[in-house]
Design goal:
By secondary structure, the chain is mostly helical. It is globular.
Length: 128
C-alpha cells in the first residue's frame, strides 16, 4: 500500500500504544485506507467501504481503548484455498478489517525506525 505517511514516534515511550492508537491516528489511517481502495484495481469486500465510512468514529474510539488498555486480541484470519494455474492449491489468509487497521498502525509507527537503522549498511549504487 503505497503512501508517504511518516510520523516518527518515540517507540521507547511507556505510553507508546496510547500514542499510536490515539483516535485521531486511527481516523487518519481509515481515511488513507479509503483512498487506497479508490486507487487499487482489485475488488474489495463489498462491506469494507461502508464499514470504514459509516463506523470510522466508533472504530477509532473502541480500538483506541481496547489496544491501549491491553484488552485487544487478534481475530482468526479468514483462510481459503485458491487453485494454481498448473494444478494444486495455494492457501491464502485474510485478516479481519480491525486486525488490518491495528497491524497497519504498528507498521507505520515502526517502519521509520527500522528503515533508518537497516539502510545505513545497504549498498545502493548511485545513492549517497
Amino acid at each position: 500500500m503505497p503512501d508517504n505517511y511518516t510520523e516518527i514516534f518515540d517507540v521507547s515511550a511507556s505510553n507508546i500504544l496510547a500514542v499510536i492508537f490515539a483516535p485521531d491516528h486511527i481516523k487518519k489511517l481509515i481515511s488513507r485506507m479509503l483512498a487506497w481502495e479508490e486507487q487499487e484495481n482489485d475488488i474489495p469486500h463489498p462491506l469494507r467501504r461502508l464499514i470504514l465510512k459509516e463506523y470510522r468514529d466508533e472504530l477509532a474510539t473502541s480500538l483506541s481503548v481496547s489496544v491501549s488498555s491491553g484488552n485487544w486480541s487478534p481475530s482468526p484470519a479468514y483462510a481459503m484455498l485458491a487453485p494454481k494455474g498448473r494444478g494444486g492449491f495455494r492457501e491464502m489468509s485474510f485478516p479481519c478489517l480491525v486486525d488490518a487497521i491495528v497491524s497497519r498502525l504498528i507498521i507505520d509507527a515502526l517502519e521509520p525506525h527500522i528503515t533508518k537503522t537497516t539502510m545505513k549498511g545497504v549498498f545502493r549504487p548511485g545513492k549517497r
